[in-house]
Amino acid sequence: MADPDTFGIVTSLARPGGNITGVSPQPGLDIWSKRLELLLETIPSASKVGFLTGTVPRPGLSTIISALQEAAGKARSLVVPLFHDPIQEAEYRRIMGALFEEKVDGLIVADYSPNVTHGRLIVDLIDKARLPAIYPYRAHFEFGGLMAYAVSTTDLWTRMGSYIAQILGGAKPHEMAIYQGSTFELLLNLKTAKALGMAFPSTLLARADEVIE
Q: How is the chain split among helix, strand and coil, in percent rounded to 5?
C-alpha cells in the first residue's frame, strides 16, 4: 500500500510488527510536493490545482492533503473532490465535470487503486478536458498522460520477490523493514503537450528520464 505507517497499518516502517511486511510505492509525503512542483514548473501561472484522490476521508489522507496545501502556498488553492460509490465511469465523468466547474488549471492524480484500475479512462477524460496533469504510474503515461513522476514498478516487484524468498527461507515478516520505492522516473509526453497547446520548459526536458516525441 501507499504509506502503511501514516495509515496506521504497521508499528513502524523499520519493524512493522504483527505478521506484516512488504513494499510501498511512496518514499513519504514529500513525493506529493515533488509532483506538485513538477506540475507547476510546467504551468507556472496555475492558481488552482485539483487532486484526484479517494472516495471518503480515510486515515492519512488529510495528512497528504495538508502537505499539498502547504506546498501550494497561499497564492494557490487545492481542490479535492470526493468520489461517491460505486466508482465507475459515470462517477469519473461527474468528478471531471466538477473539476471543470471549479476551473482548475492542472491536476494531480493520486495512486489510489481505482485510479489505477480506471487508468485509461482517467487519461482520456483529462486529455479531453485539456487539463495538464501529472500521474503516479508509467501506465498512465503510456495511455497518453501528459507527464508522470512514477515509481519504478520493476524495482518494487523485484524487492517483493526477494522478500517472498526470504520468508520462505524462514525470515520473520515483522522483523523485515517495509521497503519504500526509491527509484522514480520523470516521464514527459510531447505529443500530448502539443495537443494541449503547451510546451515543457527546457529545464524539465533536460531532467526527463524518458520523452515521447
A: 40, 15, 40
pLDDT at res. 163 = 96
- Residues 36 and 59: their CA atoms lie apart, in Å, by 22
Q: What is the mean pLDDT of residues 83-91?
A: 88
pLDDT digits (tens, 9 = 90+) for 98-129: 998 999 999 999 988 889 899 999 999 999 99
pLDDT at 57: 56
Q: What is the 3-state secondary structure (H, E, C) of 62-79?
A: HHHHHHHHHHHCCCCEEE
Q: How far apart are CA 35 and CA 29, in angstroms?
A: 11
- Segment 31-47 shows an average pLDDT of 94
User: DSSP 3-state assignment of 205?
Assistant: helix
How does 197-206 read in b/e, with b if 16+ C-beta sit within 10 Å?
eeebeeebee
**Which CATH number is 28-151+184-212's, of 3.20.20.210, 3.40.50.720, 3.30.310.180, 3.40.50.2300?**
3.40.50.2300
Could you list the beta-strand ranges (E) of the chain.
23-24, 48-52, 77-79, 106-109, 133-135, 147-151, 179-180, 184-189, 210-212
- The CA distance from 196 to 128, in Å, is 9
Higher pLDDT, 183 or 2: 183
